[in-house]
Amino acid sequence: MTASIGRVSSWLPDDGWGVIESPETPGGCWTHFSALEMPGYHELHPDQVVDFEWEKVDQDGYAYRASWARPRIHS
Predict the structure, then answer these.
(1) 36, 69 Cβ separation under 8 angstroms
(2) Considering the entire predicted model, what is its pTM?
(3) Which one of 4, 24, 40, 46 is most buried, counting C-beta atoms within 10 A?
């Protein structure tokens, strides 16, 4: 797995998943709420900058999946 910094391009709160974009994950990195390391309700927001770790897999049409992600305090 590889750690990167990315930006949330979309988040579907009703479905509990979204996509993080970064140069290392072309086409987007599928991210599930269960991978989010944060207190309280686990949700991201479009344009939010995050630290995340990803793996190369086929997940719902995406070539990458986040194994963990958390919002950056300072972007």
Answers:
(1) yes
(2) 0.91
(3) 4
- Measure Cα distances from 4 to 22, 23, 58 in Å: 7, 9, 19
Q: What is the DSSP pairing of strand 62-71 with strand 17-21? A: unpaired
CB atoms closer than 10 angstroms to residue 24: 14
Strand ranges (E), the chain: 2-12, 17-21, 29-32, 49-59, 62-71
Answer positive or negative: Cα dihedral of 49, 55, 58, 60. Answer: negative
Amino acid letter at 28? Answer: G
Residue 27 DSSP class: T
CA distance 13 to 18: 8
